[in-house]
Amino acid sequence: MKKFLIGVPMYLFGANALLGYVTLMLLFVGILIGLLFNSIAEFAILQNIIFLYDYLLRNGVVGWIVAIWIPGQYLLSYAIYNFLKEYYY
Fold first, then answer.
1. Which domain holds residue 84?
2. Contacts from 4-13 at CB under 8 Å and sequence distance 24+?
3. Domain tally for the chain?
4. Consecutive sets of 10 residues in the chain, 89 residues long: mean pLDDT of each?
């Protein structure tokens, strides 16, 4: 029962961290495609990310918190996953 109670949140946090890594890789590929083919298809992921963070950072304390939380949630999930993994095995 102990392994089940620790294992379920451990795998959920691990899946969330993995989702962050996949999102980061897709953003990287999208930025490269946007840099190579921007004149053809108006594919501007880098510009949209810059505008998102510019908008968030202009909105005071809440914007700063959200700007830190968006990438930080995946790091936090990975840290919790590693913490729970110590007690699972």
1. 2-88
2. 6/84, 6/87, 6/88, 7/88, 9/80, 9/84, 10/81, 10/84, 10/85, 10/88, 13/77, 13/78, 13/80, 13/81, 13/84
3. 1
4. 86 94 92 79 80 91 91 93 89
